[in-house]
Amino acid sequence: MSQPTTHFFKRKRIVLQIMTLAVVVGSSLLLKTHASASADSVNAAPAPQVTVAQARTFQVDDRQVFTGRLQAVDTIDVRPRVSGYVDEVLFKEGTRVHKGDVLFRIDPRPYRAEVDRLTAELAQAQAEAVQARSDSDRGKRLLMQSAISREASEQLDTAASTSHSKALATGAQLDAAQLNLSFTDVRAPIDGKVSYAMITAGNLVTPDAVLTRVVSVDPIYGYFDVDEQSYLTLQHFRDDGHSVPEVAMALADEHDFTHVGHLDFVDNQLDSGSGTIRLRAVFPNAQGAYTPGLYAQIRLQESHPVPRILLRDTAVGTDLGDQFVYVVGPDSKIIYRKVSTGPVFAGLRVVESGIQPGERVVVDGLQHVQPGMVVLPITVSMDAQLNDRQKAELASVTRPVAGSGTTALAAR
């Protein structure tokens, strides 16, 4: 190959190498510029907003809420004590009655006739007894004069005793007849509220018939079942020398536990099937506001107040069996914090450990943040999202504690 040709190819190879180097350098500069622009874009993005609330310390006493049922202290089926036809129904169904009020009247005429008959028989028997006693006394005098035999005198004594016994028996029969006559007025056995008339006028009744039912009104029982752990906690509370724990009740349409009573009965054994034991509370009911059979929420105190932190229940997350919260640090960065929790009261969760009073805790949207993220915290009240019932329940038991800047609550 000639020298000019060789020189031409060398120059061409050099030009290609220079062009390749220029392309590589240009691409590198372009990528670096794009990366720098992306980083500037990321750094310029605003921090996401998160809702936070300040952790507060409260004086909290543990209380459990159980579902119970109201029951009358006395429930009595009203039955007649004598047979007969019902003449009258003398009460207004569903109203309050007093002990001794006449509820039903059974036809008294057969029983009055029996009383009249026995009254006459008693008068006859008493007259015969008087005559027999007089004959006996005269016989004794004649015996002393030897005018009659001893046998005749003894017969007169026997006749007098027989007549006296007959008069006593007739008197007892008359008492029974008068009692049966009084039973024709079927009376209320207690003060209370009467049901409807199960038997109406004109029907024949016997002593096994139920005419109506009367239940006592004031006071009223509330029966409820508690689990074994709650029962043991209650026992420790009472064994420590504390007074009988407070019991409060709310009906189905009520938001707060305003009806206060006291515990008066604990059953003697647990139900092995359900693992529960039955308790009974007593509530005053002078106005008759509570009806036997109603369901009620019954709240039972289990301890005296101790300082605890309360958080909104939505602030607590679960991670592989552990519970945690997200705390916003002084630099507005998210901090993962493992916590130990207790019971819930009115939508607020008791936190036993893991956070300190005053720390800002994320209370909404945990799934949108992660540890280390810089956020813009928006502070709200811890009870901002409670519903009306929860707020009413919270207010019903919140009270100032002497010598403390905290608030007392009852935990559920």
Tags for this model:
four-stranded antiparallel β-sheet, six-stranded antiparallel beta barrel, alpha+beta, conserved putative lor/sdh protein from methanococcus maripaludis s2 fold, single chain, Elongation Factor Tu (Ef-tu), domain 3, 412 residues
In short:
By secondary structure, the protein is α+β, with helices and mostly antiparallel strands.
What does this structure look like?
The chain is an alpha+beta fold and 412 residues long. It has three domains: 49-60 and 305-411, conserved putative lor/sdh protein from methanococcus maripaludis s2 fold; 65-73 and 219-301, Efflux pump adaptor protein, beta barrel domain (Elongation Factor Tu (Ef-tu), domain 3, Beta Barrel); 75-215, RNA polymerase II/Efflux pump adaptor protein, barrel-sandwich hybrid domain (OB fold (Dihydrolipoamide Acetyltransferase, E2P)), CATH 2.40.50.100. Helices cover 33% and strands 34% of the residues. It is built from five helices and 24 strands. It has helices at 3-44, 109-144, 150-183, 228-239, 388-397; strands at 49-54, 56-72, 75-78, 84-89, 96-97, 102-106, 185-187, 192-194, 204-205, 212-215, 220-227, 246-251, 259-266, 276-283, 295-301, 306-312, 317-319, 322-328, 334-345, 348-353, 360-364, 376-379, 399-400, 407-411. The strands form three sheets. It has a six-stranded antiparallel barrel. A four-stranded antiparallel sheet has the order 3-10-8-5, with no helix packed on it. It has a four-stranded antiparallel sheet with strand order 7-6-4-9. A hairpin with a 2-residue loop joins strand 19 and strand 20. Helix 2 runs antiparallel to helix 3.
